[in-house]
Amino acid sequence: MEIIKEKRFEGERALFASRGLDIRDSVFENGESPLKESRGIRLDGCIFKWKYPLWYCDGVSARGTTFLDTARSGIWYTKNITMNDCVIDAPKTFRRSENILLKSVRMPNASETMWSCKDIHLRDVSVRGDYFGMGSVGVEADGLHISGNYAFDGGMNIIIRNSRLISKDAFWNCENVEVYDSLIVGEYLGWNSKNIKFVNCTIESNQGLCYMDGVKLVNCKLVNTDLAFEYSTVDADIVSSVVSIKNPSAGKISAYSIGEVIMEPERVDTEKTEIVISGERTDD
């Protein structure tokens, strides 16, 4: 593998279609697509300042590397990429890419990021921006922190652990989602989704968990949550009080207390939903 150290690159396609490069402490200045169509690339301590740096690549490893705001739309149509201890300060990164591993990566400007990607593994990743993960399939995340609305819209086969999602309209139009030991805050959680499971989670939502087919809650808290479960089939084990629930389609809901139960027989078959009030308390 050829080693390149402390170099400055500029101009369009500066290292186009490169093979087997180990690039260290180098800067990619103005010039689109510097590493487009490259294979077997290692990046260590590099800085990217312009658009489309890693398109149509295969086999990229990046450590301690920074993508500035101007390096937008940076990683599209790329396969087999690993990033460790990197900062991506550019929007629209990752489109139609696959086999992505991110560890200790910060994305403070992640609007429209990680769209239509496959086989994504996230460890200790922070994201700020709307529409993260839209249409992506096969996501595993541990220690994911999202601040931005509409996360994972249209996603499939998603497993999230030990995370915090501050996101209005998270998990809309999704299928096969599991969330463990996490905090989710945001209005209208999970609408129009199928086979969604939350385990040991705390959820705060206005009109959350509605229009869902097969939503399951295990040992979850629904704090300050109202008008939940409208037109949803549900199996909910809730270890807190709930402000209100409205017109679930079918299933069972167990909670410590429910402030208001709204069941309109002209809207739903009220016999199809069992509601259990346990009367237990959460303040141990």
Helicity level, as a percent range? Answer: under 10%
Radius of gyration: 22 Å
Strand content: over 45%
What is the element string, with H for helices and E for strands?
Answer: EEEEEEEEEEEEEEEEEEEEEEEEE
Structural class: mainly beta
- Major sheet summary line: 8 strands, parallel, barrel
Please provide the count of β strands.
Answer: 25
What strand order characterises the main sheet? 13-14-16-18-20-19-17-15
Report the end-to-end length measured between terminal Cα atoms: 59 Å
Name the shape in a single word. elongated
Mean pLDDT: 96
Number of helical stretches of at least 4 residues:
0
Uncertain stretches of 5 or more adjacent residues: none
Question: Explain this structure to me?
Answer:
The protein is mainly beta. It has a domain at 1-80. It contains no helices and 25 strands. It has strands at 2-5, 8-9, 19-24, 27-28, 39-44, 47-48, 58-63, 66-67, 79-84, 87-88, 98-107, 118-128, 137-147, 156-161, 164-166, 175-180, 183-185, 194-199, 202-204, 213-222, 233-238, 241-246, 250-255, 257-262, 273-277. An 8-stranded parallel beta barrel has the order 13-14-16-18-20-19-17-15. It has a 5-stranded parallel β-sheet with strand order 2-4-6-8-10, with no helix packed on it. It has a two-stranded parallel ribbon with strand order 22-24. The chain is elongated. The protein starts with a strand and ends in a 7-residue tail after the last strand.
Summed up, what is this model?
With 284 residues, this protein is mostly beta strands.
State the main characteristics.
single chain, 284 residues, 5-stranded parallel beta sheet, mainly beta, 8-stranded parallel beta barrel
